[in-house]
Write a structure and sequence with these properties.
By secondary structure, the protein is mainly alpha-helical. The chain has 37 helices and 7 strands. It is globular.
């Protein structure tokens, strides 16, 4: 690649700013510049990490996952119930994870993030601000985008930690244009011709590169140069047409077929296009700089430059028959299926309008998208699409679709779809083949839905029925059912039964191969003690259990956060304010995904007891309300009661009365009844809190 002015400057300056912000339209060499800087740092022994985003990385979840992957963070594969109990990491927590990982890396570190414009999530700015302003000075960032990057650039400028690079600095001057055109073409064109290319392209590197392809293939480069107009649009259209015209019909067909693929390699091209000379063709395109971009150091995977691919896809729609396009997409789907690249396999099948094939692929890979921390949102969208076309989907897809809805906390929808699954299973045809133990799994799933949706009575009834019908169920089924039942019994103050249930479940849980089982045993023991009022023993149990869980599961496990929230409640009840603050700060990072609202209510109680009446970094009423809104309504009601009690103790009676009026507590006091809140107050903990608050008022 050509070493441009800005590249030379960045390579030679003694100290780079914390952030190099490269923003320019497509084709201005942003990635080329970053690759040169990355290569320079790597050769110098610097710790550099490359994160490349594409059109699939539309939300911050995927960007954070890419960052963690790029930083070599380990990812676990867990059973869906375990994953839900630990919860999908909230955005704030995932940001904290990346910040913590970066902050613990030794020495100078530079993180490259290419194509940030792929992410359209409104929380992208929150993530970038955290990366910039919450990491040490030893952590630097170089990122690129085709559109304005939503981070606090004004603050970064005031602090002198950002360098902004736009299309003006990336545009090629005459010397750089000549370097890109090459010695032979530069000699044929002469200095005047090179200057003409630079002027007519206005230094747009993509246009200069396309000019290189066109003019190099022309017997009279100067005459071909006369066809250029002055605008980027005209140059782009002319050069794109000329690129295909100068290639053989076979190569044009090859390129147009490539445009239908997101990424590709030699073996994939051989299979998809049915050609044995795929390597020669790719090598030819690479040598001619025909916008084929290697994706790895070993050059086994490639993609087309997005601008070039966009043009070629349009040409393919015009010049390739629909049968040919479909053939390419179908074979691409087959190739990806063989390679277990499920996302692309399904996407190609859908693009080929092979809905039955897409449904079959989803049946094979549903657990990958839902259980193994895959793209739940995409999986749900695919199922909805197939359903809208009345394409039959398999048992596994339906089962994991319900789990996906649970992960998204769409409890009413999950219950509706579970009922449909039960009805379909009950009316299955005689002799129909279905996955092993599907009936048991469906019944277990309903118990989990009821539990997480705060339908605790239904969950307990479901447990009773499950135990009768499946006395020899799977170890995980027996263990998880025991955990759910024991917690429900504790929430209903049935302490003797709760202890008995846990004593029966504990040996089964200890026999399950999972690092979090010991943590769950410790947590449930402590919850029962807490509800019994034995705060000292509960805190001791949690302290030892949390220490082991943090060591075995890591600081970022949601289970650890849940244990910390319950521990914070115990510490506040015992007057251990500093310990409570430390535990609360740790636990609130995962509060959105604690999954059991009664345990989160313990953390809320601690937060309100520590609240001074003014929001601060540790306790914010608005943040607590925001977290509660993601759970069934009982949690928000309990939070309001806790807030009223705290406001009264802070001598803010008007504010307490206003909150009581908002939730209907004053009317209940007048009537001596629970009114419209009777369903939410069916659980004794919520009922007692409601009337204790009424007594305080």
């Amino acid at each position: 690649p050509v070493r441009t002015r800005v590249c030379a400057e960045l390579l030679t300056q003694p100290k780079r700013p914390k952030v190099i912000n490269v923003v320019a339209p497509i084709g201005y060499g942003k990635t080329v510049l970053m690759v040169q800087l990355y290569a320079h740092l790597r050769e110098a022994g610097h710790d550099a990490h490359w994160i490349g985003l594409d059109e699939r990385d539309v939300n911050v979840d995927r960007v954070l996952a890419a960052l963690l992957d790029g930083l070599a963070a380990e990812r676990s594969v867990v059973d869906p119930t375990q994953a839900l109990m630990r919860g999908d990491e909230p955005i704030e927590r995932r940001i904290d994870v990346v910040v913590n990982v970066l902050s613990t890396l030794p020495g100078e570190v530079t993180v490259f993030i290419d194509n940030l414009n792929s992410c359209t999530d409104e929380t992208l700015g929150q993530m970038l601000n955290a990366l910039v302003f919450r990491t040490p000075a030893t952590v630097n960032f170089i990122w690129s985008s085709t559109s304005e990057i939503p981070f606090n650039a004004a603050r970064a400028k005031l602090e002198g930690i950002v360098r902004q690079i736009g299309f003006g600095e990336l545009s090629l001057d005459a010397r750089e244009t000549g370097d890109l055109l090459g010695v032979d073409l530069g000699r044929d064109l002469g200095s005047a011709g090179v200057n003409a290319v630079q002027l007519r392209t206005e230094g747009w590197p993509a246009a200069v590169r396309m000019a290189q392809i066109v003019l190099s293939a022309s017997e009279r480069p100067l005459a071909a140069l006369d066809a250029f107009s002055g605008s980027d649009e005209d140059i782009s259209a002319l050069l794109n047409r000329q690129v295909l015209v100068r290639f053989s019909p076979e190569l044009r067909d090859f390129l147009m077929c490539l445009s239908l693929l997101r990424t590709f390699g030699v073996a994939m091209c051989r299979y998809v296009m049915g050609t044995d000379d795929a390597r020669d063709r790719l090598d030819f395109l690479l040598k001619r700089n025909a916008f084929v971009v290697p994706l790895d150091r070993n050059r086994k995977r490639y993609r087309l430059h997005s601008l070039f691919r966009e043009y070629l896809a349009g040409e393919a729609a015009l010049q390739l028959s629909s049968a040919r396009r479909k053939q390419v997409l179908v074979r691409a789907s087959e190739w990806c299926e063989q390679a277990a690249e499920w996302h692309d396999a399904i996407a190609y099948a859908l693009a080929a309008d092979e809905l039955t094939t897409a449904a079959r692929l989803m049946e094979r890979s549903a657990h990958v998208f839902v259980r193994e921390n895959g793209d739940i949102q995409q999986f749900v969208a695919w199922v909805d699409l197939l359903r809208s076309t009345r394409t039959p989907i398999g048992w596994e897809s339906q089962y994991w679709y319900v789990w996906a809805l649970v992960f998204q906390r769409r409890f009413e929808s999950s219950l509706q779809n579970h009922r449909l699954l039960v009805e379909q299973f009950a009316s299955r045809a005689p002799g129909e083949v279905f996955p092993p133990e599907l009936g048991q799994r469906i019944q277990h799933l309903r118990i989990c839905i009821d539990y997480f949706a705060d339908r605790l009575d239904d969950a307990q009834h479901g447990v009773d029925a499950w135990r009768i019908e499946h006395p020899a169920g799977s170890a995980y089924g027996v263990g998880s059912i025991g955990c759910i039942l024991s917690l429900c019994q504790a929430f209903y103050f049935q302490f003797e039964q709760a202890w008995k249930t846990m004593r029966a479940a504990q040996p089964v849980l200890l026999g399950i191969d999972g690092a979090d089982m010991v943590g769950w045993i410790s947590l449930i023991h402590a919850v029962i003690m807490t509800y019994e009022g034995d705060y000292q023993h509960a805190l001791d149990e949690l302290s030892s259990g949390l220490a082991e869980a943090r060591q075995r599961l890591g600081e970022n496990a949601v289970l650890c956060g849940t244990m910390a929230l319950v521990g914070a409640h115990c510490a506040t009840e015992m007057g251990e304010t500093e310990q409570a603050r430390e535990l609360l700060a740790f636990g609130m990072r995962t509060a959105r995904n604690t999954s059991t609202l009664d345990l989160l209510a313990c953390g809320f109680d601690a937060a309100l007891q520590l609240w001074s009446g003014r929001d601060d970094e540790l306790v914010s009423i608005a943040r607590l309300r925001d977290v509660a809104a993601a759970y069934p309504p009982r949690l928000a009601l309990m939070l309001s009661c806790q807030l009223i009690q705290r406001l009264l103790r802070l001598d803010r009676t008007p504010d307490a009365l206003a909150e009581a009026e908002r939730i209907g507590l004053l009317a209940s006091c007048d009537e001596g009844a629970e009114g419209s809140r009777s369903e939410e107050l069916a659980v004794p903990r919520a009922r007692d809190l409601w009337w204790a608050t009424a007594i305080d008022l």
